[in-house]
C-alpha cells in the first residue's frame, strides 16, 4: 500500500526586541535565573501589561514578508491553562483575530519552486523555563522542576503553515527558508540552540488514493534541523506501520527523544486542550491602519528570492552560487561588500562557497563573527592578480587570515610567501634541478614531453610553491633546449 | 439555558487544579447556575443595534516603547516562593507519561 505523509509546521520565534512583550524587562539571553523579571511578567497582583510597539512592528513586517493579509482590527486573548512555567495561569496570545493570515512562503525544492501556505501569524508571549531534575534527566522521571522566569514574557511569534509539506526534507527546507527570511528581516536571531526558533510538527499519513487527511499527531521538541527530519521520519514510519496493520492512529501529542530517535506519547494532566479563550481585558485592541502597513512594507529589506535573482542578473552568477550566497543575509552582505572592492564576482563567489564556508563550518563560526572581512579577501585576491602570491599559496594565506585576522600582505611578508619573481634566482634553482635529475632531463631531450611536468614540480618544491609555474616552464625549456 | 452539571464542575475544577468535596461540588453547581442565570438576563435585552465589543473603553493602540526598565532584585522575586533551588522556584513535577 502506498502512503503519503502530510505535514504542517508550527513555529515559534522569539522576537529580538530589547524588552519583553508586555513589560520593560530585558530579553538578553543567558543571564542568571530570575534576574529579568518584574511584577508584570511574574504576575504579581495589580500589575498591568502594556504592549511593546516594536514587537507589533516586527510582526507586521513578518506577516507582510509572508504575503499575509493584515488584520486591521486585532486583539489579544487569554489562553488559560495551568503549568508552572506560566505564572499568570494564562498566556496572552491571539485567537480569532491574529495579526496576519492566508499567506505563503516560496521554497526551492529539488522539484522546483513551491508555495507553502501560511495559515496564520500571531503574537504571544513566551513562557518561563523549567529545569527538570531527576535521576536520568528524562522529562518523565523528574521528581521536581526548578523554574526560571527570564524568558517568560519575551515576545513570541507563532507561524502556522497549512498541511502543505509532504516529506521530512521539504519540512527542513521550509524551516531553513523561514529562518533565512526572518534573519533578513532582522526580527529574530532564530538561534535554535538558545530556543529563539522552535518547531512543532503535525503529522498524518494517508493512503495514496484517499483525499481525506488521516488522524494527526503533534510532535514537539524538534529543536534542531537534524531532530526535525529524524523525528518526522520516525513518526511517519510509525504511523505507516500502524495503518498497514489495519490499526488506528490516536490523536495525541508526542515528544521526540533525540537520544533514542523515537517519539513517545506525552500526556499531562492538562491535555484537555480546554483553553477557554476570552479577550484580554487588560489590553485594548489594535488598529493596524493602512498607513502603518505601508510603512511596514516600505521598511522591508530586499528578501532572499529577489536577492537571488539580482545576484544572477547583476553579477552574472550561476543560480547555484546565487542560491548559496543568499541563503544567509550575512553571507550575501559579505559578498556584496567584496564585489564593491573587487571586479570579478565569480572569483569572490568561489572563495566564499569554498574555503570560507568550509572554515566557517569547521570552526562553527558565524559569518558575522569571522575575522576575515571583505577587505581581507579582496586584498588577497589582488595579490594573486598582481602575481605576488600564487593561487595555491593563497589558500594558506586565507586560512592564516581566518585564524588570526591579519591582513594578507602582512601574512605574506612575514611568512615569506611572496612569489619568487626574480628570474636570476629561479634560473639558479632550475639549474640545480637539471643537475639533480639526469634521468628526467634525458627523457625530456629524447622527446618525452611529460618529463617536463616532473621537473617543474621539482623546482616548485624547492621554492615551497612560491614560484610562477609558467615562468619555470619557460626557464626549463630554455635550458634544456627543447621546443 | 444550559445548566451546569456536577460533571462540569469537576471538569472546571480539574482545569483549575482545584479539589472539592462532594458537598462542595453540589454547592458550586448551584452557585455557578445562579451566576449563569444572572448573566443570562442580558440575553433578554434587545441588542440588535449594539456592535459586539470586548472592551468598554473607546481606546485602541496603547503602546509602550521598547525601552528597558529595571527588573526586581532576586530577593524580591523569590520572596514569596514556597521553595527555592539555585535562585529558581522549585515546583513538584507535573508531567506524566501516558
Ligand atoms: Zn517583566
From TrEMBL, chain A:
<comment type="function">
    <text>Allows the formation of correctly charged Asn-tRNA(Asn) or Gln-tRNA(Gln) through the transamidation of misacylated Asp-tRNA(Asn) or Glu-tRNA(Gln) in organisms which lack either or both of asparaginyl-tRNA or glutaminyl-tRNA synthetases. The reaction takes place in the presence of glutamine and ATP through an activated phospho-Asp-tRNA(Asn) or phospho-Glu-tRNA(Gln).</text>
</comment>
<dbReference type="InterPro" id="IPR017958">
    <property type="entry name" value="Gln-tRNA_amidoTrfase_suB_CS"/>
</dbReference>
<dbReference type="InterPro" id="IPR018027">
    <property type="entry name" value="Asn/Gln_amidotransferase"/>
</dbReference>
<dbReference type="GO" id="GO:0006412">
    <property type="term" value="P:translation"/>
</dbReference>
<comment type="subunit">
    <text>Heterotrimer of A, B and C subunits.</text>
</comment>
<dbReference type="InterPro" id="IPR004413">
    <property type="entry name" value="GatB"/>
</dbReference>
<protein>
    <recommendedName>
        <fullName>Aspartyl/glutamyl-tRNA(Asn/Gln) amidotransferase subunit B</fullName>
        <ecNumber>6.3.5.-</ecNumber>
    </recommendedName>
</protein>
<dbReference type="InterPro" id="IPR006075">
    <property type="entry name" value="Asn/Gln-tRNA_Trfase_suB/E_cat"/>
</dbReference>
<dbReference type="InterPro" id="IPR014746">
    <property type="entry name" value="Gln_synth/guanido_kin_cat_dom"/>
</dbReference>
<keyword id="KW-0648">Protein biosynthesis</keyword>
<feature type="domain" description="Asn/Gln amidotransferase">
    <location>
        <begin position="333"/>
        <end position="480"/>
    </location>
</feature>
<dbReference type="Pfam" id="PF02934">
    <property type="entry name" value="GatB_N"/>
</dbReference>
<dbReference type="InterPro" id="IPR017959">
    <property type="entry name" value="Asn/Gln-tRNA_amidoTrfase_suB/E"/>
</dbReference>
<keyword id="KW-0436">Ligase</keyword>
<comment type="similarity">
    <text>Belongs to the GatB/GatE family. GatB subfamily.</text>
</comment>
<keyword id="KW-0808">Transferase</keyword>
<dbReference type="InterPro" id="IPR042114">
    <property type="entry name" value="GatB_C_1"/>
</dbReference>
<dbReference type="GO" id="GO:0070681">
    <property type="term" value="P:glutaminyl-tRNAGln biosynthesis via transamidation"/>
</dbReference>
<dbReference type="Pfam" id="PF02637">
    <property type="entry name" value="GatB_Yqey"/>
</dbReference>
<keyword id="KW-0067">ATP-binding</keyword>
<dbReference type="GO" id="GO:0050567">
    <property type="term" value="F:glutaminyl-tRNA synthase (glutamine-hydrolyzing) activity"/>
</dbReference>
<dbReference type="InterPro" id="IPR003789">
    <property type="entry name" value="Asn/Gln_tRNA_amidoTrase-B-like"/>
</dbReference>
TrEMBL record, chain B:
<dbReference type="InterPro" id="IPR003837">
    <property type="entry name" value="GatC"/>
</dbReference>
<keyword id="KW-0648">Protein biosynthesis</keyword>
<dbReference type="GO" id="GO:0006450">
    <property type="term" value="P:regulation of translational fidelity"/>
</dbReference>
<keyword id="KW-0547">Nucleotide-binding</keyword>
<dbReference type="GO" id="GO:0016740">
    <property type="term" value="F:transferase activity"/>
</dbReference>
<comment type="similarity">
    <text>Belongs to the GatC family.</text>
</comment>
<protein>
    <recommendedName>
        <fullName>Aspartyl/glutamyl-tRNA(Asn/Gln) amidotransferase subunit C</fullName>
        <ecNumber>6.3.5.-</ecNumber>
    </recommendedName>
</protein>
<dbReference type="InterPro" id="IPR036113">
    <property type="entry name" value="Asp/Glu-ADT_sf_sub_c"/>
</dbReference>
<comment type="function">
    <text>Allows the formation of correctly charged Asn-tRNA(Asn) or Gln-tRNA(Gln) through the transamidation of misacylated Asp-tRNA(Asn) or Glu-tRNA(Gln) in organisms which lack either or both of asparaginyl-tRNA or glutaminyl-tRNA synthetases. The reaction takes place in the presence of glutamine and ATP through an activated phospho-Asp-tRNA(Asn) or phospho-Glu-tRNA(Gln).</text>
</comment>
<dbReference type="Pfam" id="PF02686">
    <property type="entry name" value="GatC"/>
</dbReference>
<keyword id="KW-0175">Coiled coil</keyword>
<keyword id="KW-0067">ATP-binding</keyword>
<dbReference type="GO" id="GO:0006412">
    <property type="term" value="P:translation"/>
</dbReference>
<keyword id="KW-0436">Ligase</keyword>
<keyword id="KW-0808">Transferase</keyword>
<feature type="coiled-coil region">
    <location>
        <begin position="6"/>
        <end position="38"/>
    </location>
</feature>
<comment type="subunit">
    <text>Heterotrimer of A, B and C subunits.</text>
</comment>
<dbReference type="GO" id="GO:0005524">
    <property type="term" value="F:ATP binding"/>
</dbReference>
<dbReference type="GO" id="GO:0070681">
    <property type="term" value="P:glutaminyl-tRNAGln biosynthesis via transamidation"/>
</dbReference>
<dbReference type="GO" id="GO:0050567">
    <property type="term" value="F:glutaminyl-tRNA synthase (glutamine-hydrolyzing) activity"/>
</dbReference>
Amino acid at each position: 500500500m502506498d502512503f503519503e505523509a502530510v505535514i504542517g509546521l508550527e513555529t515559534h520565534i522569539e522576537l529580538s526586541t530589547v524588552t519583553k512583550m508586555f513589560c520593560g524587562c530585558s530579553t538578553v539571553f543567558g543571564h542568571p535565573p530570575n534576574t529579568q523579571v518584574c511584577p508584570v511578567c511574574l504576575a504579581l497582583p495589580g500589575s498591568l501589561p502594556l504592549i511593546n510597539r516594536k514587537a507589533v512592528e516586527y510582526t507586521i513586517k513578518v506577516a507582510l514578508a509572508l504575503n499575509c493579509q493584515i488584520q486591521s482590527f486585532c486583539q489579544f486573548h487569554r489562553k488559560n491553562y495551568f503549568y508552572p512555567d506560566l505564572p499568570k495561569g494564562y498566556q496572552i496570545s491571539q485567537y480569532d483575530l491574529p495579526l496576519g493570515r492566508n499567506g505563503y512562503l516560496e521554497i526551492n525544492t529539488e522539484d522546483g519552486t513551491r508555495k507553502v501556505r501560511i495559515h496564520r501569524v500571531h503574537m504571544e508571549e513566551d513562557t518561563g523555563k523549567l529545569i527538570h531534575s531527576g535521576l536520568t534527566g528524562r522529562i518523565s522521571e523528574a521528581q521536581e522542576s526548578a523554574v526560571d522566569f527570564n524568558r517568560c514574557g519575551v515576545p513570541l511569534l507563532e507561524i502556522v503553515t497549512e498541511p502543505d509539506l509532504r516529506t521530512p526534507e521539504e519540512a527542513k527546507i521550509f524551516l531553513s527558508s523561514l529562518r533565512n527570511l526572518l534573519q533578513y528581516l532582522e526580527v529574530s536571531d532564530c538561534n535554535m540552540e538558545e530556543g529563539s526558533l522552535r518547531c512543532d510538527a503535525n503529522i498524518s499519513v494517508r493512503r495514496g488514493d484517499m483525499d481525506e487527511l488521516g488522524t494527526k499527531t503533534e510532535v514537539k521538541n524538534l529543536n534542531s534541523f537534524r531532530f526535525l527530519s529524524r523525528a518526522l521520519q520516525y513518526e511517519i514510519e510509525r504511523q505507516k506501520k500502524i495503518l498497514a496493520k489495519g490499526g488506528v492512529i490516536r490523536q495525541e501529542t508526542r515528544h521526540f527523544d533525540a537520544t533514542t530517535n523515537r517519539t513517545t506519547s506525552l500526556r499531562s494532566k492538562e491535555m484537555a486542550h480546554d483553553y477557554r479563550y476570552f479577550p484580554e481585558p487588560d489590553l485594548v485592541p489594535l488598529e493596524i491602519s493602512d498607513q502603518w502597513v505601508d510603512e511596514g512594507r516600505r521598511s522591508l529589506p530586499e528578501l532572499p528570492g529577489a536577492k537571488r535573482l539580482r545576484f544572477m542578473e547583476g553579477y552574472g552568477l550561476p543560480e547555484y552560487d546565487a542560491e548559496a550566497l543568499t541563503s544567509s543575509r550575512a553571507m550575501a552582505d559579505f559578498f556584496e561588500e567584496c564585489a564593491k572592492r573587487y571586479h570579478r564576482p565569480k572569483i569572490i563567489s568561489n572563495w566564499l562557497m569554498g574555503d570560507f564556508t568550509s572554515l566557517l563550518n569547521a570552526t562553527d563560526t558565524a559569518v558575522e563573527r569571522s575575522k576575515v572581512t571583505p577587505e581581507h579577501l579582496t586584498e588577497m585576491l589582488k595579490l594573486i592578480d598582481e602575481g605576488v602570491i600564487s593561487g595555491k599559496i593563497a589558500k594558506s594565506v586565507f586560512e592564516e587570515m581566518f585564524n588570526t585576522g591579519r591582513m594578507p600582505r602582512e601574512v605574506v611578508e612575514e611568512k615569506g610567501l611572496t612569489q619568487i619573481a626574480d628570474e636570476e634566482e629561479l634560473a639558479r634553482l632550475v639549474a640545480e634541478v637539471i643537475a639533480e635529475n639526469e634521468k628526467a632531463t634525458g627523457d625530456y631531450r629524447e622527446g618525452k614531453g611529460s618529463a617536463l611536468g616532473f621537473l617543474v614540480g621539482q623546482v616548485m618544491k624547492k621554492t615551497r610553491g612560491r614560484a610562477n609555474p609558467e615562468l619555470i616552464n619557460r626557464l626549463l625549456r630554455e635550458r634544456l633546449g627543447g621546443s | 439555558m444550559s445548566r451546569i452539571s456536577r460533571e462540569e464542575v469537576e471538569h472546571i475544577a480539574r482545569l483549575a487544579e482545584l479539589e472539592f468535596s462532594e458537598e462542595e461540588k453540589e454547592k458550586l453547581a448551584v452557585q455557578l447556575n445562579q451566576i449563569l442565570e444572572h448573566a443570562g438576563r442580558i440575553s433578554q435585552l434587545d441588542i440588535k443595534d449594539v456592535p459586539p465589543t470586548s472592551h468598554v473603553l473607546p481606546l485602541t493602540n496603547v503602546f509602550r516603547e521598547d525601552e528597558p526598565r529595571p527588573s526586581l532584585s532576586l530577593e524580591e522575586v523569590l520572596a514569596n516562593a514556597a521553595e527555592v533551588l539555585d535562585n529558581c522556584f522549585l515546583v513538584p513535577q507535573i508531567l506524566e507519561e501516558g
